[in-house]
Amino acid sequence: MGSKKRESSSKQESALENGEDKQKLNVISENADVEPSKKRMKKEKKKKDIELPEVENVNDAHATPASSNAHRAPLNSMERKKHRKLKDKVRHSGEGQKIDSGAEKMEVESKNDGNESGGTSSSGGGLLPKFHIGVFKELAAVDASVREAAAKTLAVELRQVQNAYDKLENKDEVEDKSKLEAEKDDGLNNCAPSVRYAVRRLIRGVSSSREVRFLISIADEFIEFYACARQGFALGLTMLVATVRSIKLESLLKLITSLLEVSSSMKGQEVKDCLLGRLFAYGALARSGKLTEEWKSDNNCVLIKEFTKCLIDLAAKKRYLQEPAVAILLEIVGKLPEEALLEHILEASGLQEWLEGATEAGNPDALLLALKIQEKVSIDHKFNKLLPSPFSKSALFAADYLSTISSCLKESTFCQPRVHSVWPVLISYLLPDVIQDADSASGPISSKKHKKSRKSSSADEDMEKNLVSFCEIIIQGSLLTSSHDRKKLALDVLLLLLPKLPASYVHVILSYKVVQGLMDILSTKDSWLYKVAQHFLKELSEWVVNDDTRRVEVIMALQKHSNGKFDCITRSKTVKGLMSDFKTEPGCILFIESLVTMFLDEDQSSEEPSDQSQTTDDNSEIGSIEDKDAAGTLGTAEFLKSWVVESLPAVQKHLKLEQEAAKFRVEKEVLKFLAVQGLFSSSLGTEVTSFELQETFRWPKSAIPSALSHMCIEQLQLLLSNAQKGEGPHAVASGVEAKDLGSYFMRFLGILYNIPSVSLSRALNSDDEKAFKKLQAMESQLSKEERKCSTTSDASKIHALRYLLIQLLLQIILRPGEFFEAASEVVMCCKKAFASSDLESSGEDEPEEDGAPELMDVLVDTMLSLLPQSSAPLRSAIEQVFKCFCKDITDDGLHRMLRVVKKDLKPARHHNSDSDDDDAEDDLLGLEEAEESDEAETGETADSDQQTDESEAVVGVDAVTAELPDASDDESDEGMDDDAMFRMDTYLARIFREKKNQAGGETAHSQLVLFKLRVLSLLELYLHENPGKSKSPLDIVDAGKPQVIKIFSNLAQAFINPQTTEGSEQLGQRIWGIIQKKILKAKEYPKGETVSVAILEPLLEKYLKLAAKPFKRKKSASNPSKKKQSASWSRHRLINSLARSSTFWILKIIDASNFSEFELQKVCDILQHILVDYFDSKKSQMKCEFLKEIFRRRPWIGKQLFGFLLEKCSCAKSQFRQVEALDLVTEVLKSHSSATEKTSEQFLKSHVPKLSNLIKHLVTNMPDKQARRAGVRKFCGKVFQMLATFKLSSSFVDALEEDGCAACQSQLGDTYLALKKQV
Hints:
ARM-type_fold, DNA polymerase phi
């Protein structure tokens, strides 16, 4: 249409007039469409070639391009379309161009007169104030502030012009001088020419595209910028109409219709621009307040009806005009009084018909208009079916009515991604602002009493009823069951509900269908809605950040409708994250109460079964369902309860409370639930009241499955174990039972156990019941003794023993018939450990015999017998006891622990059962590198036990299922004979018997590996608590033998022996880690008088030989695979590294001990023997760098062996070894050059003859290879330099004799001559 071109022409002339450099600017403007097509882009590209003529003749500017292009031949279809469109624009421009032309001429004349600056207009030859036309350009600026300033300037200047025009007596004289060719019947006769021009230009401007791109050619360079014309011109029209009273509303409506008329020749973007222009023009009128003023001046004014009719007609033309047209109409509705709405808006032509067809057509904007009008007036019959009659909130959200308007609401998706305006209006009716966040009125946490008081209100009940109806019919029934767009809309509407939603209504919006829909979407990342659902969960998580009541309700809803598997199915950590953010005690207590209610109330389970797979939650430690025996027996209905059981301990684990008392109260609540549901059952109903505890305990109506009760006991063990670890180094010495969870548990257990109507969930046999009572009694006595303790160490020991007794008590209930013997032995150890105390002795205990084993041996043996079949909490309790008592461990107990580690996983074919440990240590030198027995990893059944002690670097495993072997006939609970000391050997024999009977032997193999790993954890604790400890020389047995050296020797032997770690890479890595971190690299190491050189000598010799041991392949492996060969070579290098590190460590111990010269000479003899093999044997793989490092760290060894080195270098069989060994000689000389000058001189002088003999031999028998000859010359140069330093050149030359001097001069040349000159 012509209006856009005229607008661009005015912008071009403004650019010309305001240019400071006065260059000629060729301006090419093109409209950047909102949705440009390929044809449009081609058309814009061609427009760049059209030159615009001079600004004085606008009509020629439209005609010239068309006429010039008409001479082109032949014309293609695109060019013909272009010419037709240009002609249409010229034809439709009409009188508007005359106004533009007149304005332009007026501006040119004013410039010629010199009275005004460029870009201004003065209609009336100085009679009227100036009006700057350049503001039209600023109205199209991208910056909103620039547009606003231009609109204000436009309004102010034109108001001044109009005021001056109104004061003129002869207005015809001004119009004649203006030379404007505007229509006389446009209704603006009372307006100044500039105002009339501005009105028409602003109306045409609002039809411009949203972004107008200008290409300005300056010196053949194009500068591109964007402008926002439609918004700026609409703002200017608004302010102008509101400011200048002379502008009549009727005239504006006619001008909008005439100037922005859609003709039949218009297509595509042109039609859209005209329609949007009319929309913006009507919006400008609405915001100007002109309609309100017209009604106030004349209540019978028909312009409001006409305006309403225009908007309704416009809304009916295109779907995208419908919502903004209603928004403009609502602008008027908000400003007019009720009388005007009734007589003008509602009586407008076409409105009632438009409203009546809304439900059938699915028109959400009609519903929005009806609701907004209903807020101001109480008229029901005017809206027919669109609103309920009589109107009320309950009627608005009635099921029948919601079903009627569901089509309207479903069609509101056309404005996505934005949410339609009708939804916030409905939500304001549904959830009034008055009750917003009523749950948080008294703080972040609300109690259940508050909820009950709220629900007692009828208004709250009606609101909940309305919310349920809305969610069921609209959200679940209409949107979630429809297309992806409507599913997204459903989630967006739920997010709109959140800010006003009370926490008690969370379960309404997070219903079964909503949660299932989220799970379906999030289970597939390729889904279009995946990011939408993620955003929903993110907003939901942010909504609950500062309110634990909301957090609890959200967690309960998500897990209830997913059977506790929301995180698993969605592959997210939503629930885990929500559960880990509890920071207050009231929030945790509320969550625990909700979990308990969910567990006990069977009606809480989801009414509809989940169609998702019954997989467990592997992504979340919180609420995960482990793959245990229970998983096979639990049905779908029990998964939710199992999640409750596993989530309760996790609450206090992630809770970070500054006050220990608050944390303890949370732990007590969890403990009571787990103990009641796991350990006890009621014979009289589902409720039992304890008057002593003043509490009522409940059980589910249906009996708890055994797998679920097992889970409760396991979580109870875990809770107590974590409580013990979190007590700190000494919370035990305080003796305050109020903060001791173990003491509280035993008291709680005793009270419930004595209630007649309550019994243990599992009946115990006589042996278990006897052990159960013994454990109860001993724990009670130890608890009293702990409070009496004056020393921290004794209190720690008693505290650790108490928790071990508690864990054993739970194990007896959990696995009947397996732990009563170990429990009796631990009780006996407790009595012997604190024999001097007031602990009661059982009459059944036999008196201690003279040959009875030591207490620590019995305790170690008992703990070893428990380790193979212990759970993670029981292992943790064992480790705590061992940590407290390990300083008193005997060599015998330590030996049995090491024997477990050294036990072969796969015995050798020619294994001699009669061989002792010494023979086994000697055998390590003859071990061949075995191939990997199997490419597969060990068949470990590791679980996800993350609660083991930090000192244990291995993953925890499932409890061993094999039973303990029966005790011999000679054994009894009261006394222990020698057979009891070797229960561990009996258990190992049982493992291998099972290995023969089972296919593949995977179970027995994995059990032994786990047993070794658990014993290694104890050894690591021992080394941590006893770094570098040695037995006192006063001990009769193994006097002077350091225990750390013994552990090192056995662990190294276990690592080197391939049968020890067969098929378990983890076991080998664990042994290697302990040797490296806890022994070889530890700050403390054995030293002093307690270390005997007799122990270190054989170890040093073995590891030196091991360092020189060559790599051997197994003879049977004729063609091993690359993988096995690489593994064998890697293992060889690892063992070689261990041998070198061990040698350095042993030499460090020797160096730090005060050994005699005779003992040190023995050490040097061992190294000398190794050097003999190094020089004489080709099989020796000893590295020269390793020997150099020994001499560098221990110079006294090099000093003792220097003469021997010189002799062996002179007579070495291998020329390669001879030259390589020269570095050893150089290293010894270097280490002694740093000593005192006199000592170094004496040392070197004593070896001058041997040095001269060596150099004479080297230069006489010079190597053939150039690199070796260079090495010899380098060595001789260093020796000559040192001899010259200590002035021993003369004696050296004399020792060379005549033939040696000739050889040196021949081979060494200037180097030797320089030395000879110093003689």
